[in-house]
Amino acid sequence: MKMFFLIVLSIFLFSCNNNKSEKIATAKAYFDKARADTTGSSFYYYNLSKNSYFEANDSIEGARSLVNMAIIQEGKGDYYGSIETSLEANRCLEKNEDSLSLRILASSFNNMAICSSYLYNFDETIEYYKKALQYSDDTENKYMYHNNLGAALITLEKYKEAQESIKLALPTKDSLKYAMFINNMARAKHYEDQKYNPLPEFNQALEIRQKKGEDENSSYAALSNYFFSLDKNKALYYANKMLNTAEKNHSPEDRLQALQKIINLDPEHYLVYFEKFQALNDSVQIARSKAKNQFATIRYDVEKKKNEIAENEAELLKRNIGLGALSVLLIVGFFWYKRRKKRLKQENELKIKNDQLRISKKVHDVVANGIYQVMTKIENQEHFDKEEALDELEFVYEKSRDISYEKPDLENDIKDNKDRISSLIASFKNDMTDTYIVGNENEIWNGISSSSFEDVYQVIRELLVNMKKHSQASRVIFKFERINNWVKIQYTDDGVGIPGEMIYKNGLTNTGTRIAAIRGEIIFDNKSEKGLKIIISFPVS
């Protein structure tokens, strides 16, 4: 049996490991598809990749997918959404110290800094760039972060600090990055000292960019800004160059920036360019809103699909568990069958024993107490008729014979309950003992089942028999009450009482059992100076 469970456990663990490997392979396939995508579906595949990595408990790769999603959101103008996605990635990595986790964190903070700059939160921008530098261990990435930090410091007019930061980026081997860095360094120097001529660096940066065919608009923007207060025609020339390049590269953000410059530099055609700017700006805002909604929809749809898959897997797991449980049941069935046979044998022996106890109790109730009641009548009544005595004994005999045949007591169902109780109590009255009954009316017994009444009848008889044998009482009182569907019977005598240790001996053992059977309670008050008081109460139904 132990070996079987070990085999099942091994199969289960192997299945789990196999499942994890499959999920990682699926996640990697989605990630590669996202990187290679040219149709605008990268965000969708990165999201699928992220979910698969998390299902495989690979939080690092899941965080990398999240950062890529955040960068896509930033590129589409969803800056708040991008920051939120980056923060989600950061939470997955905050306790990790491996180099990959730190590089991903650095990239995430860089993205948050860029978003914050577009939202004009420059203090946060600087804080995020510093964190990106803190976590980065890649030299080229650090050069970029130093440059970006410098650009943010220029915006805050901290030109000296900006130069110090950008200076750390100049050793880069990447020519396009170098063009960006010297362009920003020249800006910082010129803003700090208006006498400084930034044109050599501006032109050098433009020349590099033109050769590469990339990022020329950054140079055109810097040159237009520089000539704005010196030569409006040159400033307008570079603004138009920026607009033409932006249109050629399909860059709406650069077009908006160029149109803003032209509006300020060409008052003659102000209205024409303003209308273009307004139309383009509306289009950009609509595109951004669509992008935000698209990102939210993709995440919702993927999450919904993920939940459906999880539900299906849970269903499959339930089925497998059911089959496994069935197998276990079949294996242990043999052992259960053997134990069941043994248990049935024990139960049968216990049933025989219980039947013996039940019959013994019935013999005590019907035969012993019945004979004692006849003896009491003979003793208490001077002129007790012999024929009546024989009838009483014959009745007891019939009852004892009924016990042997397990026949129900039909006669008791027919007799009037009130009269039976009164007759029973009266039969114990003699010259030495007076019996009194208070409240024994038909209403007391309404709604009480015959089985409950029989138990109560036997309890009263047991009390009377014990009174006769032990109490030496001269007066016995039974008081019957019915309150809120509860029947209360109070027994009082003026005899010698019963010592505490004797209460549940002999006949009174059955008394407690009977009262418990009808969900009632019995209270013995034997602390009085003389006599005994017993209170019995039980519910009607």
Report the structural category: alpha+beta
| Strand ordering within the main sheet | 1-2-3-5-4
Low-pLDDT sequence parts: 6-17, 410-414
* CATH-assigned homologous superfamily of the domain at 416-539: Histidine kinase-like ATPase, C-terminal domain
Shape: rod-shaped
Summed over residues and divided by their number, the pLDDT gives a mean of 83
Helical fraction equals over 70%
Q: Please compute the radius of gyration using only Cα atoms.
A: 50 Å
Q: Based on DSSP secondary structure assignment, what is the total number of beta strands?
A: 5
- Beta strand %: 5-15%
End-to-end Cα distance, whole Å, is 51 Å
SSE series: HHHHHHHHHHHHHHHHHEHHEEHEE
How would the blueprint of this fold be written?
Blueprint: H1 2-36, H2 42-55, H3 59-75, H4 79-93, H5 99-118, H6 122-135, H7 139-155, H8 159-167, H9 175-192, H10 199-212, H11 216-227, H12 232-248, H13 252-265, H14 270-380, H15 386-405, H16 410-414, H17 417-426, E1 434-438, H18 442-445, H19 450-471, E2 475-483, E3 486-493, H20 508-517, E4 521-525, E5 532-539
Parallel strand pairs: 1-2
Antiparallel strand pairs: 2-3, 3-5, 4-5
Helix pairs in contact: 1-2, 2-3, 2-14, 3-4, 3-5, 4-5, 5-6, 6-7, 7-8, 7-9, 8-9, 9-10, 10-11, 11-12, 11-13, 12-13, 13-14, 14-15, 14-19, 17-19, 19-20
Polypeptide structure, described:
The protein has 541 residues and is an alpha+beta fold. Among the domains are: 19-137, Serine Threonine Protein Phosphatase 5, Tetratricopeptide repeat; 227-299, Methane Monooxygenase Hydroxylase, Chain G, domain 1; 416-539, Histidine kinase-like ATPase, C-terminal domain (Heat Shock Protein 90). Helices cover 74% and strands 6% of the residues. The protein has 20 helices and 5 strands. It has helices spanning 2-36, 42-55, 59-75, 79-93, 99-118, 122-135, 139-155, 159-167, 175-192, 199-212, 216-227, 232-248, 252-265, 270-380, 386-405, 410-414, 417-426, 442-445, 450-471, 508-517, and strands at residues 434-438, 475-483, 486-493, 521-525, 532-539. It has a 5-stranded mixed β-sheet with strand order 1-2-3-5-4. Strand 2 and strand 3 (486-493) form a beta hairpin. Helix 8 (159-167) packs antiparallel against helix 9 and helix 11 (216-227) runs antiparallel to helix 12 (232-248). The protein is rod-shaped, with a radius of gyration of 50 Å. The relative contact order is 0.04.
